[in-house]
Amino acid sequence: MSFLNRVFIKQILMRKVIYSLIPIIIISTYYFGLRAIVLMSVTTVFAIITEFLFEKRLNKKVSEAVIVTSILFTLTLPVSTPFWVAIVGIIFGVVFAKEVFGGFGRNIFNPALVGRTFLYVCFPEYLTIQWNSPSINFPGGFSTYLTPSIDTVTRSTPLITFAQTGELVPLKNLFWGNISGSLGETSAILIILAGIYLIYTKAADWRLMVSPILGFMSLNTIIYFSNVTSIPNPIWSLLSGSIIFISVFFATEPITAPKTTEGKWIYGTLIGCITLLIRIYGIFVAGGMFAVLIMNTFAPILDEGIKFYKGSRSRKVIA
């Protein structure tokens, strides 16, 4: 324990996030095999080493936030992602989205999503076409290293299946998570429960969590009932893909999100809307990561704009 205290900065908030992720880690292992734990361990080790090498020069400790970053990064990946690809991604995310800005508390972009986006663009075959079947019978993945791979596109993730065939995976499968996909994005119920825990323990702002879902659902409903394009019903759209996972764990990151109340609502709502627009009209199925990174860019501007607007109104009232 003394060694850990010498190396890591104690961050209670980050530990709460880790606690909320434990059920998701367990279910991802159950569905896809013990390789999920191995992959997560590898990325965590390299994330810690990377941050340690940067912080050591400044006589600073490693933040526990880097553990959260590596866990979330791994949960955005398919279980069969090669180790070297995951290592490249987490190092890129920690270095270019965190350390180059000065380390913990100074980053503009979410490091886990930067690493994931880098892999999505540079090594798309590992993140878009290599999927594994979920286990459905106990002990499931606890008794195997890796579940069988899926060879055909039409039997891959719910969103890809819908795009290719128009077929909708049953809602109960989306709810419980026995579907193909990235490790942490399958079980909607566990992600929702994690969100409730984070709100209850004041580890996350409920506005940042609720607003992306409201934005996503509102725009989905408008487009769906307008028959503008082929789009699933709002409930199915919400439970499929990564929007709930993004809303609970990425939109709520306090460092990269706005600080003003109004800014939080605008920020989250636009994340939801952009996610849906990229999903429908873009060439990428996974629009959530791009939506968060886009809004990370505008978070400081939102706060400054709102403060300027409020200041202008106050001056007019006084005058």
From TrEMBL:
InterPro entries: NqrB/RnfD, RnfD_bac. It holds the Pfam family NQR2_RnfD_RnfE. The chain crosses the membrane at residues 12-31, 66-97, 175-199, 206-223, 235-253, 265-294. It comes from the Bacteria. GO terms for biological process: electron transport chain; transmembrane transport. GO terms for cellular component: plasma membrane. Keywords: Flavoprotein, FMN, Membrane, Phosphoprotein, Translocase, Transmembrane, Transmembrane helix, Transport, Ubiquinone. This is Na+-transporting NADH:ubiquinone oxidoreductase subunit B.
